[in-house]
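Quick question: what would this complex look like in 3D?
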Amino acid sequence: MKSKLFILGVIALVMGLHNGLFAQLQDEKSVTITMDLQPILQLDMETTDQIEFVFDDIKDYYAGITKYGATILKVSSTVSWDLYAVGRSNGTTGAEFWDQVIDYGAGNGTNSINELPLSAVELHQSQPNNGAGGAGITATYIDYSTPFPASTVHNGANSLYVNNGTLTPPTVDDKYLAGHSGTTGVGDDAMEGGSYLIEGGYTSDYYYVIDYRLLPGLPAIFPNAFDADAATAEDLVTVNGAGSYAEPGVYTMYVQYVLVEDQ
Amino acid sequence: MAIVDGLPARFFLFLQLMNYNQIIELFFIPLAITFGISVGHSQIVCADVEILPASGERADFVFDSFSKYISGIAFHGIAKVNVKVDDQVPANPDCKWMLSMSVENNPASGTPDDEWEQLLSYGAGNFSPAKIEILDVRVSNICHTSPVDGVYQNFTQTSDIIEVIENTGIRIDAGSCITNVNGPGSYLANYDEFHFQIDFRIIPGFNYDPGMYQLQLVFSLVEVP
């Protein structure tokens, strides 16, 4: 009993000292700080209104026509991002084909085909895709950074991604300009937020110069048209049979560049 | 005479019968309690201490353009802290005070101690919530009495405390207009020393989850014996 009283006395002493330390007068005031971080995805594009490919010389059919630096893409983003290109048209001849505006002459031969594949357009980007290093990316070509091959080589390395005329993003089998399908992380399938304004300008991962090439071949079958996975040929002969060729005329299509938050 | 003779005899006997435990019980315990109570009431050295916000108890940072993300947003003088410390009557030479600031992020909602409280998340981004360290706070007054006067400070976690006026144990009277003035005074009579302007700055960068965040900056004024 007395030892308990001793402990009680010690506690009382400690409490007394403790109270003494915290018995000071004090006052507090607070300031509330709110922060609204709004996501910003900004794609600046420099390009002509229309990029024209006029094939009026036989060598143009053989060698194709290349438009260097026809488009410049500049990215500014506050979030991780992906950038891809997709071929589209109005679908007048089909979802995955160029629109035929004018049909030259009256010669609609049996093998004359007006369904030109959108994937016949080839792209080349100035900077490689540094956001597609993840193990889950299975694409044969992760981007369009491979230089245009010789006109006699047909491998789909630069053929434009097309998805039935829609904006649907490419899968892990397809090409992105930057970043890729999935949300594993920056470098694996995404690009880090930033801007060409502060990240090194035209040599950075936020600045892409795009070259275009169209190679009809002779006969004009567009041998570099491939499905997005670069494994399935879409040239006119493969799709329509031997002897097929492109019907002379004026065709139009458009390339849509899409900047999205990493997904 | 017999009674007188008997008193010393009984007193001697009483002391002889007391052992160690009885001494503890009768003397130490009451002494300890009395001492504790007396210490508890001996720490009040000033009559009153008070913070009076002059204006602005809220700062809203809205990042809605890329240039704001790059260059940040700064609010100068958006908050003001006015200090008023009254001495006792008669004056107590030990009346001193210190001023400190800390941050609070509503930990009861599960907010980690190094992050802002996230009220709302925009989109489906794969990011982490904003860190407390992106908030820069700068305190200043005309006499530059704070050791951190005019220099942006930041917090890495909620347990961080930044002393605006330090507890040096030495009293520096109002009117000295030097570092750590901590004697009794008021922003009314000693405006240059007892009025503090608060500046905020945030440069968020590109690594945080877009959304709405909130944080409390708490100023504490305490008398120090």
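Answer marked as accepted. DSSP finds four helices and eleven strands in chain B.
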